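Researcher: Predict the fold of Methyltransferase family protein.
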Amino acid sequence: MHDHPHNHSHGGAIEGRHSRVYNRLARLLMRPQYRRIAADIASSAPHGAAVLDIGTGPGLLLRSLAATRPDLRLTGIDIAQDMIDHASSNLADLRVDLRAADVASLPFEDDTFDLVVTTYSSHHWGDPATAASEIRRVLRPEGRLLNYDFERAPFTTLETALAQTSRTNFRAPWSLVMKTIRFEARPPMTEQ
Ligand SMILES: C[S@@+](CC[C@H](N)C(=O)[O-])C[C@H]1O[C@@H](n2cnc3c(N)ncnc32)[C@H](O)[C@@H]1O
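Model: Structure tokens for Methyltransferase family protein follow.
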């Protein structure tokens, strides 16, 4: 399938025509995938948790999360302003904080989020080591990162700043063509 939403080899931002195609195909084909991932996130998210979705793209994971768990406080960032524009229109009826930003320079205070989530984005990040320390910085000490991505994602680099708690195969509707790893990590314990 030539125009499959995840079938692209270029790295970094997905912009312009690519973002329009991605938005259209994601809306058409990927909703069951987002629903499955949102259910997994929802099953462990504390009540009222502040959740950041990095590389949110068209924002459809946030849409599923809002439907499953209206108590969550949702924020989404993407390096591509075009994607943030698609997300703003897809989430126009919801209260979600959406901003254009690079994961390597997150526009948030330290200790802001209970959960950082990200789907099929981390394999695009230009500087995963800086991304990892930024994620650690914005996570509360008891917070967690949940990253759903392909095997080639920089999981090992993410472990440099975060303590891995698990890395498992994730079963979802598109698993056959999008073999997905569920990677969970926490900020490491700080010495007293
Ligand atoms: C394959 S899309 C995934 C979008 C969405 N999470 C999903 O599951 O449909 C990858 C997204 O990551 C974004 N991205 C790439 N590099 C990024 C970075 N350094 N910081 C933030 N977002 C980034 C791209 O612009 C794109 O929207």
